[in-house]
Amino acid sequence: MRHESIVGQIRRDFEACLARDPAARTRLEVLLCYPGLHAIAAYRIFHLLHGWGFPLLARRLSHITRAHTGIEIHPAAEIESGVFIDHGMGVVIGETAEIGHDCTLYQGVTLGGTTLQHGKRHPTLEDGVIVGAGATVLGAIVIGQQTKIAAGAVVVGSVPPNSTVVGVPGRVVYKDGKKVAEPVIPRVEMPDPNADAVAALARRIESLEEQVRELERRHGTASL
Asked: Mean pLDDT in the chain?
């Protein structure tokens, strides 16, 4: 984390709320009514406690903050200043997650891990990343700067800078403002036992009908 005072970090977080939420009318409204700001400000204090060798106290206080805001941030996570958590309910930020300057997270976002091993197991968001509502970013992957992740996307692989990611699993659809061509997926013809059985039955019926017609012709000829 870059060197910056905790007061300076919280000030930038506060200004981010005003700058990125058109619903923010006054500074007092942001100060009193924005759980995302409350959660980030509390995290910054708890992060210091964690670094000073009081991890249990930091975890306990973060647990209380989660009950108040609906936002869970592990105090060991590394979060730069200017981060805006909009609405925020259900946001989860894991222990080894790293979030760069001026990122925006909407409600329901999960920055989670995919392993039970110790060490780096949560995502890194570079500067200016936007993660839409309900999106999930999993594993020790890197989301490049200025990337936008669509609401509901599930991202399990690293993403280059200046991209737009959508879908489950997440895929890049725009890069540097240009649409990315969809990969051509080869069509695989799978056998269909039911269709084969119906086709065989149809051929059998056609054969029997031909035999009946042949018998009718012979019978008619014999009668004459």
From this structure: 90
Assess contact for 140 and 117: CB atoms under 8 A.
Answer: no
47 domain residue, yes or no: yes
Q: For the segment 149-167, what is each residue's pLDDT rounded down to a tens digit? A: 999 999 999 999 999 999 9
> 211 lies in which domain range?
186-224
Tokens coding 27 = 């500074």
Res. 196 pLDDT band, cuts 50 70 90: confident
Query: Domain check: are 151 and 215 in the same one?
Result: no
Task: Identify any residues that bridge with 165 across adjacent strands, giving them in sequence order.
Answer: 149, 172
Calpha distance 38→26 (Å, rounded)? 16
Mean pLDDT, residues 53-62: 95
122 in Cβ contact with 96 (< 8 Å): yes
Based on the fold, state whether residues 147 and 196 are members of the same structural domain: no
| pTM of the shown model | 0.77
- Looking up residue 76, the CATH number of its domain turns out to be 2.160.10.10
